[in-house]
């Protein structure tokens, strides 16, 4: 005989499964039916499922409905990582535009912009508060494009190289896997970034050149042609590839050490909040190393994009070898450390939001399968 609970809903909304969701459904239906029989000795008139749902204002989900999690290394996984990279890089770089503006001007004109504090003072006096955000549009667009390629392709290349190496060699040479994957991703990411970076530097370091991206881009093309947009690609690779290799490899290593030595419980038993805190801390420390390694090339990029027809030799002669390593470095350490920590925090927060695990801390032997 058909049970009262089954007669109240269509057959496709229930099954004989003993899953937690079917158990909860049984509880709801049994409680409703028991209450109805207690109030009335005679069976209540049967209502259609549609009228019941509309009257109660809720929708019963099928116990056999598949989960909505993202399968690891599926197209949806790489799409999520790509979008997470857009958020992490685009938003953070746009936020630190004032710091980047002062840093670029200190690199281009150290006689005028002698220190961080004086640099902010000069900009405030000459351009007002609005001047601190000059170039924010090319910054947002450029680093969003870079972040999409950087994080999305890193996940892809790390998985690909891990599969090629196999479990044993992946565990043994995991740092090389991180370095190779991040370098491969950054080559592609910088091709996307370079045109925006060229316009950004010109807008930020030459007052009156343009207000931003909309008028700066056509002015730059008119002045130097489309080829000029990629004049700084080689120095950009020189800056960003070591930076990204350090950013990803050191982050993975630092996070692994934090879970191994500083946190008593395995990562799987840690709360998501704690995992995101580890991501930020690991990212900040990694960012300090990144700033030091990539700083000479950063000075070259700023110089070349500011001076029409300049070469790397001209930059070295003008700035000097010591200046390449030291000019604007303290500010860049603060900026890049904060930036990198925030990027990893945002990136992993988005991964958690869509149901993916945070980055790092997984046993090396399973790196090629789970992340």
Q: Can you tell me about this structure?
A:
- The longest helix is centred in the middle third of the chain and has 37 residues, at 136-172.
- The chain contains 14 helices and no strands.
- With 371 residues, the protein is mainly α.
- It is 72% helix and 0% strand.
- It has helices at residues 4-7, 20-39, 49-56, 75-95, 97-108, 116-127, 136-172, 174-205, 213-228, 233-262, 272-306, 312-319, 321-326, 329-353.
- It is globular.
- Residues 1-29, 31-67 and 363-371 have low confidence and may be disordered.
Concise description?
Its main location: mitochondrion. It is found in: Mitochondrion inner membrane. 72% of the residues lie in helices and 0% in strands.
Task: Give a topology summary.
Blueprint: H1 4-7, H2 20-39, H3 49-56, H4 75-95, H5 97-108, H6 116-127, H7 136-172, H8 174-205, H9 213-228, H10 233-262, H11 272-306, H12 312-319, H13 321-326, H14 329-353
Helix pairs in contact: 4-7, 4-14, 5-6, 7-8, 8-9, 8-10, 10-11, 11-12, 11-14
GO molecular function, one term: phosphate transmembrane transporter activity
Membrane topology: Multi-pass membrane protein
GO biological process, one term: response to salt stress
Summed over residues and divided by their number, the pLDDT gives a mean of 81
Number of helices: 14
Please compute the radius of gyration using only Cα atoms: 28 Å
- Taken from the alpha-carbon principal axes, the silhouette is globular
């Amino acid at each position: 005989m058909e049970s009262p609970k089954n007669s109240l809903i269509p057959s496709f909304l229930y099954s004989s499964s003993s899953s937690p969701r079917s158990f909860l459904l049984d509880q709801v239906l049994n409680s409703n039916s028991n209450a109805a029989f207690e109030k009335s000795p005679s069976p209540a008139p049967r209502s259609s499922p549609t009228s019941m749902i509309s009257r109660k204002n809720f929708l019963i989900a099928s116990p056999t409905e598949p989960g909505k999690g993202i399968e690891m290394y599926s197209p949806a996984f790489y799409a999520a990582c790509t979008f997470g990279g857009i958020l992490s890089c685009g938003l953070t770089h746009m936020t630190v535009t004032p710091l980047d503006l002062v840093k670029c001007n200190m690199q281009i004109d150290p006689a005028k912009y002698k220190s961080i504090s004086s640099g902010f003072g000069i900009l405030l006096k000459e351009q007002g508060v609005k001047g601190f955000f000059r170039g924010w549009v090319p910054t947002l667009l450029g680093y969003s494009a870079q972040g999409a390629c950087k994080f999305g392709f890193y996940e892809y290349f790390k998985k690909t190289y891990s599969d090629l190496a196999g479990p044993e060699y992946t565990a043994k040479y995991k740092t090389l896997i991180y370095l190779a994957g991040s370098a491969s991703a950054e080559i592609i990411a910088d091709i996307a970034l370079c045109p925006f970076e060229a316009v950004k530097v010109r807008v930020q370091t030459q007052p009156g050149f343009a207000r931003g991206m909309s008028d700066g881009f056509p002015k730059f093309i008119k002045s130097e042609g489309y080829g000029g947009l990629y004049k700084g690609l080689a120095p950009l690779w020189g800056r960003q590839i070591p930076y990204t290799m350090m950013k990803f490899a050191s982050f993975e290593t630092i996070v692994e050490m934090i879970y191994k030595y500083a946190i008593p419980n395995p990562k799987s038993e840690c709360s998501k909040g704690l995992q995101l805190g580890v991501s930020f801390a690991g990212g900040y420390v990694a960012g300090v190393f990144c700033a030091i390694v990539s700083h000479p090339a950063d000075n070259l990029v700023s110089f070349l994009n500011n001076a029409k027809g300049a070469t790397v030799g001209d930059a070295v002669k003008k700035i000097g070898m010591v200046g390449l390593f030291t000019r604007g470095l303290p500010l860049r350490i603060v900026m890049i450390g904060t930036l990198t920590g925030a990027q990893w925090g945002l990136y992993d927060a988005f991964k958690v939001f869509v149901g993916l695990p945070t980055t790092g801390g997984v046993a090396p032997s399973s790196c090629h399968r789970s992340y």
